[in-house]
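Exercise 3.2. Students should predict the tertiary structure of the chain below and write it as structure tokens, then compare their answer with the key that follows.

Predict this chain's 3D structure.
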Amino acid sequence: MIDELHVRNLALIEDAVLRPAPGLTVLSGETGAGKSALLGAAKLLAGDRADSSAVREGQKEAVVEARFVGLPANAEGDDELVVSRRVGADGRSRCTVDGAMAPVRQLASQVRPLLELCGQHEHQTLLDPASHASYLDGWAGAEARDALSSYRAALAAANQAQRALDQVVAASQASAADLDVARFTIEQIEQVDPQEGEEEQLTAELPALQHAEELAQGVSAALSDLRRDGGAVDALAQAAQQVRQLADIDPALAGTAELLESAAAQAEDAAGDLRSYRDGIEFDPRLLEEHLDRLGALEGLRKRYGPRMEDVFARLAAARATVAGVEDSSERLVAATRERDAAEHELTQAARALMQVRRQAAPGFAAALAEAVADLQMAGARFEMDLTELPRSQWTQAGPERVELLYAAGPGLACRPLAKIASGGELSRVMLALRGTVSAEASKPTLIFDEIDAGIGGATAVAVGERLAQLAKSHQVIVVTHLAQIAVHAAKQVVVSKVSGEGGMPATVLTEVEGDSREAEIARMLSGEVSHASLEHARELLERARG
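Answer key:
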């Protein structure tokens, strides 16, 4: 759940901190004070698209930070998560997760599972039948989740098997021209028979072959300088012997004697290496010609199939695959078809199992939802789940069928799609009923409601407040509302107001209200002003909410 939400320079908010209660927190205040900006901050943390126009006028960036607590402990035993997002006036967005820079997608993957934002946009989601299967599965619980997981795994396997079959079919249907090109490519490359690393080795050996005579003469001259009478080897040996004798008189020359002895030994080794090198030199014009011819053949392959030798080898492999695909197509086609059919059979079994779970759960879910909305002053409302199996080509991650929640406002009326008959107030109550009906295990730990009070009042508002209070026993619930009947159930109430900030610009201020201050705020919500009568009514509602 959210332990603390800190917002700076977002819309009207200059600097504000919200510390919601573990249960129900209500945000109240006049329209336009900045309550929606707080919800916008939560959406930014959940990975929604950043809009530079939301940055407070005259500021370089908006900053949203939050600490979540009570999470499953990680490998280090930490059960907290601290995230932040900065949105610049230039549109750039930066995120951090536990102090480390992170992409928006990581922010979304870690925060979105912790928050459920229920506002006007989410009402539109409720009107989209594509989301209805998730409500039914959430109510059905573990059995539906397991069946859906098995179905998705089978769907992925079947789709992969179909792709593999399509590749085999495509390879087997190569045109005669393609086959001729592939065979010609194989013939041309195999005729040269290039080897891995061969061109590099030949290129490295070429200078020695081209300059063999020059190398032989130069090495012989150097060897003569070292080995002739009085040459470098003899001179170094004689100098080393003389200094060694002198070192017997003055030990300070011992180190110099060692250096000369080492130099003499190294000169002797160098002479041996030069002799071996000279003896190994081949001055063979025929060998040089063969070397150049081979390099020319490899260069020809690179020019035709390159530009690199790696490209030549890749073209050879592709050509061989084309020929093999045609020549072995019959056997491979049979094998790929068999694998595809087996995967489709497994998928069919998994789809039937999922559909059976949903059909068994649908009547109970519809009844539970009707019971829940009856408590929200929608007595007589009915729901049905319309489950229609789709053609195999239309199966998706959501399942093999179209699942739609149908609604009837009262007895005797046919159930029809929500989008055609439900009002804004009814949608708000259905959304709230869904949150209370779907198991807590399937819901997110923090629920944020905006416009939950749209189109309702009186007894309905009282019922909605009671349902939110009930929901807050298993979730952290944050509600933006103008209705006192909802606000009285809050464990914490925060008044969002607009004041004159720095430079006379309007700014949003959050004020937790308790005791007399809260009674006054409830009274204002009831009648628009604080009077003796409205205060009495406020105290009565608060007392009744406390039970």
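Discussion points: Residues 12 and 507 are 5 Å apart (CA to CA). The longest strand covers residues 2-10.
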